[in-house]
Amino acid sequence: MRAENLGGAGAVDDCEVAMQLCEFLFETLEGALPYERIAIVAVEADEVLVQRAVRAREPDRVIPKSYQGSLRRGTLAGVLAGGIPRVLNRLAAYAAHAESGSPTHLLLKEGYQASLTCPLEHEGDAVGLLFFNSRSADVYRPEHAEIVRRIAPAISRVLASCAGVGEAPSQAAMTRSLAAIGRAARAASEEEALLARVLEQVRDGMVVDDVLDRLYEHCHALLPYDRVQYATVEGDRVVARWARSRFPVHLPRGFSQRLAATSLPEVIEAGTPRIINDLAAHAAHSPCSRGMQIVIEEGQRASLTFFLGAPEAPLGFLFFTTIEPGVYTSAHVSRLRRLTAPLTAMLEKARLYEQLALARARSEELLHMLMPPSIAARLQAGETDIAEARETTVLFADLVNFTGWSSPLTPAALLLTLRGLFARFHESAERRGVSRIRVMGDGYRAAAGVADAGDDHPERAALHALDILDIVRTMRSPDGDPIAVRIGIHTGPVVAGVLGGGDLRFDIWGPSVSVAARLESHGAPGRIQVSEATAKRLEGRFALEPRGETHLKGLGPTPTWWLGAQSHSVHRGPDDSHP
Predict the structure, then answer these.
(1) Do domains 3-194 and 208-354 have the same CATH topology?
(2) What is the CATH number of domain 3-194?
(3) Is the pTM of this model over 0.90?
(4) 396 within 8 A of 485, measured Cβ to Cβ
(5) Each residue's pLDDT tens digit, 148-177
C-alpha cells in the first residue's frame, strides 16, 4: 500500500491508524528485512499492553486480535526501558526460560521462530511496541534492527497523536506521516546496504594494512575525510601503526606517546566516537598531545576519533580527519558505531593472521638454520622419517683449552662470545655451501654435500675450514692470549636425515663421522687435519703437507695430511678470499 493512496480529509481513529501503519509497513519494508507478521501493541494505563493492529501472511489462530498483556510480566518492560530494538533469533530457546502463557509461547504456537521487537516512545513516554516475526530462526541481523530503529520515531509520533497525546491526525496528515516513514525506511535500508558493501570490501583484507587500505578506499560514501590513521594501544602507550592521506603524512609510523598524555582515555570512557570540528581552536584552549599537534601541522582541521575494542581489552583508535572544519555530525557517529563490532573483528583477525605468519616465518627460519633447505621442505610437506645415504665431506672443529680461557667469563659473557663466534661460522657455512649440523658446547660439526648432489663438497668444506681458522685468529682470551681451534675433515659415505619422533634434529651417521671426529681430536691447535680420502680430492687445489701416520682411536695408524691455503691455479669465485 502506498501512502498517496490513503487519501481523505477526515480524522482517523486510533485502531484505523494502527492498521494503516501495519499495512503500510508490511508492504513498504518487504525486502529490507525478513518477516511474515507485523504487530503494533500500545501501552495503556496501568502498564497494560493492547494489540492494536496485526498484519500477517496467514491469519493468527492462537493470538486473539484484541490480545492484552501486562508489562509487569516478562521482559518487554526492559525493552521499553532500554530504548533499542531487541532481537530473539531462537524463540524456542528463549521460551524455555519464559513464563508460561507469555507472548513468546503464543508466537511459537503460531509457528514463528524469530522476533524483532522495537520500543516506541514519544517525548520520553512509552507509546507501544512494534513486533516483526519470522517463521525462520536466525534471520535477524544488526542492520535489520537499525532500519527499524530509524523509522520508530515517525511511527511513535503517529501513534501518540491517536492516544490523546496530541491532536488526532487527519487522513491527509496520516498520508504525509506514512510518506515520511517510507522515506526514512528507504534511507535506512540504503544506508545499511552501503555499510554492508563497505564491510564486504574491507573483509577481503588479510593483513592489518590491507584491511585499513580497503577501509580508506571504500569509506568515502559513509563520511568525509582526507586522512585516516590507525594507532594501537600497547601497554600504557598509543603507537601510530598506519596512515593514508591525500596530503603528505608527517606523523611517522611507530610514533609513540603515553596514552595518559593524550585525551584518548576520555574517548574510551565515553564509549562513543568523538567529534572535534575545529582542531586548531581545540588545541588553543585544551591540552594538546604532540600527535595532535603534528596532525594540525599537516593541515587537518576536523577529526572524528573512533575507539576499537573494549575498555578492558583496547585494540586501538581510528582517526578520520579533514582539511575542512565543521564537517562531522552525529549521523557520521551513528554510521561508525555500526561499523565498530565488525571492523574490530576484522582487525583482530588480521592481527592474529600477521602473528601466525610471523611465527611461521620464524619457525621456517629456525628450521632452515637447523637443517638443509631440501630436508626442511620435506618435513614441511609432511614427511617424518627422512634418511639418505650420501657421499659427503664432514668437518669437526673444537676450541683449544676452552675450559681454561672461558672460566673467568660470566655465563652471560660466555654465551655472548660463543654466539658471536658461531654466528660467524654459520655465515661462512652459508657462503661456502656447507650445512651446519650441530654446536655442542665448544664443538662445531658441519658437512658439505648433504644438501646437494654436487661433487665439489671436499673443496667447499676445505674453504669453510680455512674461514674458521681466520675467524678464530681474530679472537683473544680474557687474558689477551690468542685462541686456537683444531679442525678435522674426512670424505666418505654417511646417512643424513631426520629420525622424526619428538626430536626433529637433522644429523649425520656412519663411520665417516667418527673418522672426522678422530682427525679433529688428534690434530694440532691452529691446524686442519684431513684424511687420505679428502686429500686425494683436494690434490692440486690446496696446499697439502703429509703428516705421516697418525694413530686414530678405533682405526689404528692412519695416513693424514695438514691442509693449507687454496692453490693459486684454482679458479676462485668472489667469496673465495684465501690465496
Answers:
(1) yes
(2) 3.30.450.40
(3) no
(4) no
(5) 888 888 888 888 876 554 455 566 776 777
